[in-house]
Amino acid sequence: MRVLAAMSGGVDSAVAAARAVDAGHEVVGVHLALSRAGGTLRTGSRGCCTIEDAMDARRASDLLGIPFYVWDFSERFRDDVIDDFINEYRAGRTPNPCMRCNEKIKFAALLERAIELGFDAVCTGHYATLIDGPEGLELHRASDAAKDQSYVLGVLNAEQLAHTYFPLGSTPSKAIVRAEAAERGLTVAQKPDSHDICFIPDGDTRGWLAEKVGTATGEIVDRSGSVVGSHEGAHSFTVGQRRGLSLGTPAADGKPRFVLEVRPVSNTVVVGPKEALAIGEISGDRHSWAGRAPSETAFDCEVQIRAHADPVPARARVDSGVITVLPDTPFEGVAPGQTAVIYDGTRVVGQFTIAHTVSAVPATA
């Protein structure tokens, strides 16, 4: 088949493209230019999609003997990922830009163009597995639990899965991928993995948001509403945060306090004890199914609320387009805006954006 290999400039996408070539597919490499700052340089393992990454992707393509192109998706990335990130923080939510990038860029904009050009599938270096199930294609966790990326792929729907190709999903470890890259002569064999938010390469999310959203002094209150401190912008706080609160009034029990809630309308941050971070119910209405939808409106499952969190056994219910999840044991530190991915064993069932949370610990005066 004709395969468009999305090449980030890292070792995973390079080896994925190489395996697609070995499998006999007609492969073309493409690097997505997502930044308007064309001269952006990479610093260690921070960020991605820089000019150096584009050069690494080109060198890998040349070694593999496949055509290579750079496509400018910077405007779409700005609109669908960066602006969404800013707007979500303005609304007091904590978004996951990698989820939006997969949903809107890599498996929407890129896939749409690939299909228009006659490609059968988009190949990426994600660690996830596709399995032909009894009722259609299924998305499953990767063999390497430490590298599994099925969570960030939970936004893919059945049509998108039908045109994706994950050559690394059954690889037992990242070490094997690096060794294979070295054997192939790929210069990215020992290149560090990227981390943090790619469009904030220095890692200073708080400072970046302050520049984009602005600062405004507001109150920090406890669960009873008593003022215990002040801040320079509610957008710079996330649920579960402990550091950087600078509270003027200590807790009565002397224990540390954590951010429990961000209220953007009143520019207020609510803090409380660690046990108050326990969440007994989450719900949301922005959802999609990775393949077939559940046959029942209520079903047992496992739910993961962060890319590297442990899945939690739960009971999910779908009612009028809203998904509500009751975990067997409370989630900890859940913020509206996060993505909850639903699993049935290793299979990804679907996902939704968390809009509401209910504490498992009642507030006390």
Automatic annotation (TrEMBL):
Binding site for ATP: 6-13, 32, 125
Location(s), subcellular: Cytoplasm
InterPro entries, per the entry: MnmA-like (IPR004506), MnmA-like_C (IPR046885), MnmA-like_central (IPR046884), MnmA-like_central_sf (IPR023382), Rossmann-like_a/b/a_fold (IPR014729)
Cystine pairs: 101-198
Presence of keyword Lipid metabolism: no
Coiled-coil blocks: none
Function (record text): Catalyzes the 2-thiolation of uridine at the wobble position (U34) of tRNA, leading to the formation of s(2)U34.
NCBIfam families, sorted: PRK00143.1 (NF001138), trmU (TIGR00420)
The protein, known as: tRNA-specific 2-thiouridylase MnmA
Taxonomic lineage: Bacteria, Bacillati, Actinomycetota, Actinomycetes, Micrococcales
Gene: mnmA
